[in-house]
Amino acid sequence: MKHFLNSKIAANLFSLTSAEIAKRLLGFFTLVYLGRTLNSTGFGIIGFAAAIISYFILIVNFGFNNYATVEIAKDTSKIQTYVNNILSIRIFLSIILTAVLIVYLLYSEKTLETKYVILITGITVYAHAIALNWVFQAVEKMQIIAIRQVMGGLLSLIGVLLFVKTPNDVIVASIIISLSLLLGNTWFIPIYQKMYGKIKFEFDLRFWKELIQKSFPLAYAAVMIGVYYNLDLVMLGYMQSESDVGIFNAAFKVFLLGTLPFQLIFTSFFPSLSRVGLINSREFRTLLTNFGKTVIGTGLLSGTIILLFSDRIIFIIFGENYHNSVLPLSILAVNIVVIGFNVFLGNPLIAWGKNKEYSIAITAGAVTNIVLNFILIPKYNYVGAALATLASELAVFIGVFYLFKKFTLGLFSSKNNEV
């Protein structure tokens, strides 16, 4: 244990964990300030625009990060090839998506203010296109990523505190948030060029084809996850008022903060889960038991606290104008508990190389979310959106429970293949 604590892995994990917590908290404080200053209508416009653009970002990212990170980690001589081609693909996609966004806005029936905010938020597509955090992750320069995470969060928070003062500053807020992300990701470029050389546009179509084929399974899973995490806000924006979107957005941001520990826990366990694999051994059983206790216990604790104190949490964070957010937050608090079980049952499938099977379970959740949003939102508004989110997570639970049982059947027996 002492050796691990002094290792590079532990140092990288500490850097990323600390930076991720700092980034999430800074981002959360930014949103809290915006929620209080812009009122529920303005806050709803910001949330709706972010949800719309999140799908454009999924297309630009396309799972390239995860695939390229693994390949570069294996052979660092490939860094320039991957960076030059991936940035070229992403900028090319960003230009096409910008044209699509403009056409969409021309025919959209949304207010002019909402259209402007969506267009400005579209800048973040380019911010993701030029991001190079995955390169520094591959070469284990986590401190660089950590600095950028905190810097971007600070830029955004300071900007809104200085320039967003009234409910009329919705467009100003969207400009600050978008430019903060763009500037933060631009910061990676000179550091990369100093270490690895100048970035050039490369159009190796054969390489592009291979890259897209290899990244597609990861991209598909990301899109499915994006569907049932962002579709509620999008559909609310079209079926209900912008104020209703703001009410749900407030509850959803608290919910997301409650789920923050899950990714950090899985990141900590991922290397061991990958190394041990699906083998009937004492180490396997101990590892799964510890992982389960940690992640399920965290889910129960986080979900119960938010459920019991949802009214006080909403009042303290967003103020009495968001009292209608209490009920959807209570429903989403129950969802946190379900997510704890899903992380335990589903996320190890990724470490065990069962990405295709895991994607099927995620798809079930996405389809459930789409169907129930159409049914529940017109009748129950933001409460219906929260119920659809909970139901979609339960659908995922059924899928990952079946898969987990299938792949671990007999591996918890201490009578066979004991190591």
Features:
single chain, 419 residues, mainly alpha, 2 domains, 85% helix, globular, disordered N terminus
Can you walk through the features of this model?
The chain is mainly alpha-helical. It folds into 2 domains: 1-203, no CATH class; 242-411, no CATH class. 85% of the residues lie in helices and 0% in strands. It has helices at 2-5, 8-61, 64-74, 79-107, 112-121, 123-129, 133-138, 142-163, 170-186, 188-196, 205-239, 242-276, 282-308, 310-318, 326-351, 355-408.
SSE string, helix = H, strand = E? Answer: HHHHHHHHHHHHHHHH
Q: How many domains, in number, for the residues?
A: 2
Helix content: over 70%
Number of strands: 0
Question: Strand share of the residues?
Answer: under 5%
End-to-end separation in angstroms reads 21 Å
Mean pLDDT: 85
Structural class: mainly alpha
Radius of gyration: 22 Å
Largest sheet: none
Q: Please count the helical segments.
A: 16
Topology of this protein?
Elements: H1 2-5, H2 8-61, H3 64-74, H4 79-107, H5 112-121, H6 123-129, H7 133-138, H8 142-163, H9 170-186, H10 188-196, H11 205-239, H12 242-276, H13 282-308, H14 310-318, H15 326-351, H16 355-408
Helix pairs in contact: 2-4, 2-5, 2-6, 2-8, 2-11, 2-12, 3-11, 4-6, 5-9, 6-9, 8-9, 11-16, 12-13, 12-15, 12-16, 13-15, 15-16
